[in-house]
Write a structure and sequence with these properties.
Elements lengths: L2 H8 L38 E5 L16 E6 L5 E7 L15 H6 L7 E3 L8 H6 L3 E3 L8 E3 L9 E3 L13 H4 L12 E2 L2 E6 L2 E8 L4 E6 L2 E2 L9 E2 L1 E15 L5 E6 L2 E9 L2 E9 L7 E3 L13 E7 L2
Parallel strand pairs: 1-4, 2-19, 4-5, 14-19
Antiparallel strand pairs: 1-3, 2-3, 6-7, 8-17, 9-10, 10-11, 11-12, 11-13, 14-15, 14-16, 16-17, 17-18
Amino acid sequence: MPAAGVKNRAAALFAVLVLAVTAACTGGGGSSSSPSSSSARTGGDRDVLAVKIDNVAPARPHTGLEEADVVYVEQVEAGLSRILAVYSLGLPPVIGPVRSARETDLELLRQFDRPTLAFSGAQSKLLPAIERAPIDAVPPSKAPRAYFRDPDRPAPHNLYLRPERIPFTASGVDAVAELGLRFGAPPPGGEPEDSRTVRYPSASVTFTWSAGGERWLVSLDGAPARTAGGDRIGAGTVVVQDVDVRKSDFRDRSGNNSPFTETVGAGDAVVLRDGRAYEARWSRSSAGADTVFSTPEGRRVDLAEGPLWILYAPRG
């Protein structure tokens, strides 16, 4: 993202949204029902808002994804991918399409301080784990006025969120800083890189360097990723994090196993910034710890200005 865009978003740093809370129930999307107990807080600042977003062709173009500070891409059933978008410095008026949560999200989000998670629902056996997790879960049953369906899109790819209507108050904390990361100069070395593709069994994400735009242009499954207004979606820094992906104890309605991405541990990574690729290592000692990215020599890797995309790439 150009520096001017970052400055504009930073201007919203201390904006406070006054939110309406409702306890009425409504039907949501996703695999099953949503939690019914009140884990969503109505007072106090939450550091970040995380939204689970659909990422198959009928769900595109995405709405509000370009405003996310951090975008995670993870593998889900049938080898497809799904997005977890994290917002902190500013909220778009609409985000979506919203889909169901996965077990991987609960461990991933432990890196943030009591985040709010917006999602359409979850597999019934996963609901107790969501209730126990240190997150403020806000599915449609807890904030029915915040969600709506677009009649021009096919279900289940048509559920959208109006974030100003959920029990979330922006605290002004930068999501990148909350992860223990910072913007700064690149490390020495690196190799020129024009394009990098991350492949999942049934999906792919490609990043192409735009020197003029000073960002990595995103393509999803071979097609340019665009905003609802038709503009290209880009990233300032891309991290490709090699991880173990194993079977979990959960399945979707079709009987497909929901894979679990292990985000605690250590492994190789590649950091893309400023048109170059940097070999790196990642390490995370526990679910409550931040993920550290460093060069092979042990030097911390800082980020370029703009949205951060982190892709969990299956080892192998």
